[in-house]
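Hi R.,

Here's the chain you asked about this morning:
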Amino acid sequence: MKNALVTGGSGAIGEAICMALAADGVHVLVHANRQPAKAEGVVHAIKQAGGSAEAMTFDVTDASTCKTVLEAWITANAPIQIVINNAGTNDDVVMPGMAEAQWKSVIDVSLNGFFNVTQPLLMPMIRTRHGRIINITSVSAIAGNRGQTNYAAAKAGLHGATKSLALELASRGITVNAVAPGIIASPMADAAFDKAAIEQIVPMKRAGKPEEVADLVSFLASEKAAYISGQIISINGGMI
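And here is the predicted structure, written out as C-alpha cells:
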C-alpha cells in the first residue's frame, strides 16, 4: 500500500482529495495545523468507508518541525510516495494597502510550505524510484486577480517550482504536476462569490465541486499518469 500526505487535508478540497486517494487504496496522512479535530473527522470518514488513514499535525511554515515529523514517520513506517501540497492561505487586499506581514504570511504557507514539506521526502522517494508530487495552485496564478498579488505570487511560484522539480526527478520515476482550480465550492469561495458573480465569471455558470478537483488529483497520482510531468493543469469551468 502506498502512502500519501495531503497537506491542508481538513479543508473542502483537501478532504475530497483525501477521500479519493483512500478510495484508490492509498494510506492517507491527513494533515492539519490549526484544526486537528477536522483532520480526525476526515480520518474517521475514510475508515468508515473502508479506507486507511491517520491524522498528522504540524505547521508547514516551520521547516525544522516538518523535517523532524516527516523523517520520524518515514523511519517508523515507509517512504511517502504521493505528496499533495494543498495547504494554503489567503489575505486579500490591494497591494497599495498591503502590509508586509500580509505578503509574507501568504508566501510562507503556500511557497515555503511546499519546500518545507516536500524536500525531506525526496530522497526516500527517490530510493523507491516512484513518486507523485501534486501542487494545488490557483487560476489566480495564471490570470492574476485584483487584491491577490500575494496569493497569485505564491501560487505562481509553485508553477515554476513544479516545472523545475519535474526536470530534476523525471529520470527517477517521479512526476511533478500542478493543479490550478478556479472557483470551487467551499466556505472561502462561498463567502467571496455569490451565484450571480459566478455566472458572470465562469462560462459553465457554476462553481466547481471539490470532488471534481479530487478526481483530477486521483488520476495524476495513479499509474495511468506516469508520463505526465511538469504540467500546470487548469480546472476552472472554462474561465481561461
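One quick note: Strands lie at 3-6, 27-32, 52-57, 82-85, 131-136, 174-181, 232-235.

Cheers,
M.
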